[in-house]
Amino acid sequence: MKFLAFDLGAESGRSVLGELKDDRIQLTETSRFLNITTNTNDQLRWNTAALFASMLDGLKESVKQHPDILSIGCDTWGVDFVTLGDNDRLIEEPYCYRDVRTDGLLENAFTRVPRKKIYEETGIQFMSFNTLIQFLAVTLGKGPDWKKVRTVLMIAEYFHFLFSGKKVAEISLASTTQAWNPRMRAWSEMLLEKMGVPSAVLPPLVPPGKILGPLLPSIAKQCGASEKIQVIVPCSHDTGSAVAAVPAEGERWAYVSSGTWSLLGTELPAPLITDLGNELGFTNEAGLDGTIRFLKNIIGLWLVQECRRDWEQKGQVFDYPTLTKLASEAKPFGSLINPGDERFVKPGNMPGKIADYCRETKQTAPATTGEIVRCALESLALEYRKAVDQLEQVLGYQIEKLNIVGGGSQNQLLCQFTANALGRPVIAGPPEATALGNCLIQAKSLGHIKNLGHLRKVVRNSFPVKTYEPKEVTAWKAHHEKFKRLTSS
User: How far apart are CA 112 and CA 197, in angstroms?
Assistant: First the structure.
């Protein structure tokens, strides 16, 4: 049984075939393509036309090799959306969450609804680029006139619409908007009204695994695909699919879905919306089978990705293994940064920003490539430790082990640093958790997986994991204290 996942990230996208047999699944990447934002008139936008063209090429290549594919599904990052007008036509290419149009709008939102009330309604941490704040930007004239908008679709659901003709809002992705109420499992009509959003533009909510129906005949013909291939919404938010594929057992475990962003948290049976959770920035997002992903959004390998991009523009080309090797050879704890500092969220001159931060905080600025990458990775590991400490505060019990899935699980240096910082085992893998979860959710929808527990058993059957035991705990504990002082100032 074969399923095709389209997994779209901030840097690239790909199509991945999952073949399920005897409670084991094998993944094969069938295509890979770039995801390049455009910057026109100082507006940062996604190129959905180019992305969908690449997805069609990926489908065409996949069915050429595997004509017996049963279904397809797409997952993407959260918060961003498209607007459709009359005849379901795209009004404009969607803004990227890193665009500056929402800078400073949080305070405007709080004049409409108090901060505490928004958190009580949604359980979502506050970030200036949350969909709710992007909606407010549209209301304030930084986007198409709401009067011309007929439908708002999150990015993954836009592609599901192009494949199937059906417009829906899958809840794992909808839950990232800060316009969804996790207790009611419904759109927050109150927040939409206060932010000036006509609620009629939002499509009906559906659970992960919803079967939308077969490919549109025109798409099937164009790609040489069977019209029987079903379009299934997985957990359309990439983290939702990744968390479904965490190979965890038992209780008291946490996860990091590690990629451009790091999402650190645990899985709960119901929302946990408290004043402490609000204060510490925890978020309640929907997962598979009615679960809640209780987590924090933390900047991730974006720090290294942006450094690499900056160096490449200056003629210094490094692959990631080389950057990791150079970091491993650099002096430990030369300097630390606060990964949560706002300057690191925006693109551009990341090595310079890291150096500037260190000088401003009276540290020696890292100078070499290895020193800069090591500074980023050590700081990220200590940020994970800080987030785990905070998670335990909110939960009221100690986390016993941390699972790292996604691309970051392949960075052995980061995984070891994280085990050192936590003083607890780190279990790394699988690296392809998002595409894996996407495929297995499709399989579950078609009756080949029983439930979430069965899904995770298939993951454990199929992929080895590596356990990192903590080392140099005393040294890391001392630098954790320094990091706490640095990030509390």
Answer: 13
Domain boundaries, the chain: 2-237, 246-429+450-489
| C-alpha pair distances (Å), 150 with each of 30, 89, 123 | 35, 9, 28
pLDDT higher than 80, residue 99? yes
Give the Cα separation of 455 and 45 in Å (integer). 36
Selected catalytic residue, list 238, 275, 289, 341: 238
Mention the CATH class of domain 246-429+450-489. Answer: alpha beta
- For 408-454, write each residue's pLDDT tens digit: 999 999 999 999 999 999 999 999 999 999 999 999 999 999 999 99
Quote the mean pLDDT of the chain. 96
pTM value is 0.91
Q: Which CATH class is domain 2-237?
A: alpha beta
What gap in Å lies between CA 405 and CA 466, rounded to an integer?
11
CB-based contacts of 418, cutoff 8 Å, min separation 6 = 256, 381, 384, 385, 402, 404, 426, 468
Q: Quick one: tokens of 9?
A: 């990230």
Pair of tokens at residue 459? 């993951």
pLDDT confidence of residue 489: 61
The reply to whether 238 belongs to the active site is: yes
Q: Rounded distance, CA 232 to CA 449, Å?
A: 15
Q: In what order do the strands lie in the sheet with 211-214?
A: 24-34, 12-21, 2-8, 69-75, 230-232, 211-214
Distance CA 473, CA 77 (A): 35
Q: Give residue 352's Cα distance to chain centre.
A: 26
Contact present, 425 and 419 (Cβ < 8 Å): yes
Of residues 443 and 407, which shows the higher confidence score?
443
